[in-house]
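Team,

Forwarding the record for the chain on the shared tracking sheet. I've put the sequence and predicted structure together so nobody has to dig through attachments.
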Amino acid sequence: MAHIPLNSPSSTVFGIKDPSQRTLAALRLLADLLALPNRWRQRALERRHLCDLSDRLLADIGLTRADVDRKASKPFWQPVDPSQGDSPLSQSSK
């Protein structure tokens, strides 16, 4: 098996051959990794606030206490519903 240096025009990193595009992909990855702690903190905070809402307010936004308990029990690093984004209010389970 031949060794191809990473800076070789024929090398592929992140599935990308163009060196400038590889750099952009690496920077995006780094930015995403650096944003994770803030995203996790925000999820935990939103879930705490959701738990503090009254049953009447929950009904106004289409959620039940059981919905909130299920959403709030997820770990901070796990989105409530990955297909719906990060907010616990993204979708109720009716």
